[in-house]
Amino acid sequence: MKLKIKFSLIILSIFFSNNIISKEINKSCDELLRENKYEEALKTKKAEYKAAFCHGQAHLKLHHYDDALNNFKLANKLAKNDIDHAMADLFEGITLKEANKLDEALLYFKNSISRTGVNKTFKRLNLVEIGEILLLLTKHEEAANSFLEAYGLAANDDERAFNLDRVAFAYASMRNFTKA
Question: DSSP letter string over 56-107?
């Protein structure tokens, strides 16, 4: 009887230790991203939208822009709903911006607005990104207009405040402090 109990305890301890170890090994890509373990995140499988999107984010954090862009394009193909398409689309544009391909990113975001349909949130995010790129290109008046348009789509006070802050920054950059 004692042997049976000891054997059962050994089996249980092995079972629990294997579960703890396998939990550590099988972390999802998202968990690894949250822990800033980008290289490990890239070792996860990417057969579905969520994994391809996660790989794109990891590559973006590692400044591997071509790989990030390819993963976001794959995620866009694997997306099964409009929100997933819009997220992948948004991050494709952000990747172009981060890669300092500003003219290409600007065109991409402008085209992306037409693909967002009636989704105000993604339209606003695209307009904000357009404004940020225009600021980088020192097209301050156009940037202010983009942020003002995004302001009209803001869903809450934080978004409105952010957009007005960027409008003020654009006007201040033009030394137009009365509008800022």
Answer: HHHHHHTT-HHHHHHHHHHHHHH--SHHHHHHHHHHHHHHHHHTT-HHHHHH
- Mean pLDDT for all residues in the chain: 84
Residue keyed to tokens 């809450």: 156
For residue 101, the model assigns a pLDDT of: 96
Number of other residues whose CB lies within 10 A of the CB of residue 66 = 10
- Res 114: pLDDT: 85
Q: Is 47 exposed, middle or buried (0-12, 13-18, 19+ CB in 10 A)?
A: exposed
Tell me how far apart the alpha carbons of residues 49 and 88 are, in angstroms, rounded to a whole number: 9
- The radius of gyration of the chain from alpha carbons, rounded to an integer in Å, stands at 23
